[in-house]
What does this fold into?
Amino acid sequence: MTEVADPTRIITIERHILDEQRAHPEATGTLTSILYDIALAAKFIASRTTRAGLVDILGSTEDTNVQGERVMRLDRIADQVMIRLNDHTGRLAVMASEEHEHIIPIPKKYPVGKYVLMFDPLDGSSNIDYNASIGTIFAIFRRKSASGRGKLEDCLQPGKDLVVAGYLIYGSSTMLVYTSGAGVHGFTLDTQLGEFLLSHPNIRIPQKPKYYSCNQGYQANWSVGVARYTQYLQGLADGGSSLSLRYIGSLVGDFHRNLLAGGVYYYPADNRDPALPTGKLRLLYEAAPLAFIAHQAGGYGSDGRQDILNIEPISLHQRTALFIGHRGLVEKAEEYIRTYDQ
Ligand code: P6P
It folds into this structure.
C-alpha cells in the first residue's frame, strides 16, 4: 500500500510565501511570483543538469565570460533560462548576471516593475563534467531609480538592502533555499509532482560546527592571519578543535553543507593571482545573497574585516574575500586577520 502524503502537510513555495505574506499585509504577491518564476527556471535547469551526461551539453563553449572563465554550455542554458523566464513579467526593472558584462535591460516591448534580479546562473560550473553539486544563486532588491528602465545604480546596492536572497542546488536532489528576512527555508523538488515542497523549514546553522571548507592548495598564498586561522580550525593552534575539511570547489555545495551541518567556508584574498587581489568571489550575486541567508540562519558573512552586508558595491562584478557560515568561526577569522595582518 503506497503511503499517501498527508495533503495538509504538502507545503509548496506558493503556500509557504502566502502564509508568510499574511504576516506582511503590505506584500503585493509580486515577490511570490518572482520566486515562482525562479523555481520554474530551476526545474528547467535541473532537468538539463541531471541529463548533462546524456545530451551533448557538457564541455565548454568557445566563449569566455566577463570573469575570463570558459562558459560551459550549461552555463549558457542556465543564464538564458533565468533571463527568458523573467524578462517579460513586468515584475523587474533590470537584471544582471555573472555571464553578462553589463546590466540586462528589460526589452522595450515588455513593462518594467519595481524589483531587481541578479544571479550567478550556474555557480561551480567547472564541476559539471564531474557530476558534483552545482547551483544558481540569486539576489532580489527593490529598484532605487524612480521609474523607467532600470539602471546600473539599481544593481549597485549593499546586501543589507536585499529583499530576498536564495540559491538552487542541483545535487542528489534539487533544492531551493531562500530567505525574505523571516528565516531561511528549504524546498526539495518532488520530481513526480514537479513541485518544490517545504522540506527544511527555519534552517539554523548548528551551534557545534563540523566542517571547514577552503582550497588549501593555495595556502602558500594566504596571509599569516588566514594561515594561522586554518591551523586553529585544524586544532593545531590556540586551542582550536579540529574540524573535518570538506571542499568540492562549488560555493553552493560547500555553503549548503555548512548551513545544514555547521561549519565555515572561506575563499580569502590571496597573492596568487594579481587579478584577484581582494578574493575570487563576486559580491553582488554570490557573497551578499549567501551572507543574507547565513545571517538569517544565525550565522555571518564577512570579507575578513567587515560584514559583507555593509559593503557598498562600486561595480557589477566586484570581487571580495569571503568567510561565511558559523558566526563564531567567522568572527574568529576576523580576529586572526586583525591580529596578524596589517
Ligand atoms: P577554486 C567556482 O568557480 C567558484 O566561484 C566557487 O563556486 C567555488 O567555491 C570556487 O570558485 C572554487 O575556486 O580556486 O578553489 O577552484
About this structure: The pocket of 6-O-phosphono-alpha-D-fructofuranose is lined by residues 123-124, 126, 215, 249-251, 254, 267, 280-281 (CB under 6 Å). Residues 96 and 102 are 7 Å apart (CA to CA). The longest helix spans residues 30-49. The domain at 9-200 is CATH 3.30.540.10 (Fructose-1,6-Bisphosphatase; Chain A, domain 1).
